[in-house]
Write a structure and sequence with these properties.
The protein is of the alpha+beta class and 180 residues long. The chain is 16% helix and 46% strand.
Amino acid sequence: MTRVLRGAIGVVGAAGVLALIRVVSFAPYTAERDVGAIVRFAWRARGERVRECRHRTPEELEKLPPHMRQEEVCEGRVLPYRLAVDLDGVATVNQLIHGAGAREDRPLYVFQELVVTPGSHRIAVAFTREGTAPADTSGVLATPARLTLDTTVTLGSRRVLLVTYDEEREQLAVRGGSVR
């Protein structure tokens, strides 16, 4: 194939693609008028750290190399929280949120999205610590043991309502939408 023939094929191919784009650009399109709105639950929380220690048995110590023989073994983790969401009186979310990381020793991250019909909705949220926190917190600023929100909101089509945690006020807060 000669160089001129390859160039001609390229020009014809490009012209064909451009013609196709032009024809398709005139096709009618109607956007959906009433599509859902989104209620998004998103926040980061510092959970209550617990440290669980135990003493190794003599048999366990024998199995370990001499440089690793510690009598007491401690593991730290963050207590989980339960996220419960009722939308218009119906339980829609009931999830246990664990600390991030392989050992669950990092902050808790909440991210949930609910698609709802546009209009007025009653949202009730409870974010409750599971388990018992230690008596000595040593000045660590952790999220309160229970956070709640009970509100009615009005959402338009294609709108997003954000439910988040306000660390300064230590409460759940709503951003976006019309809150009543």
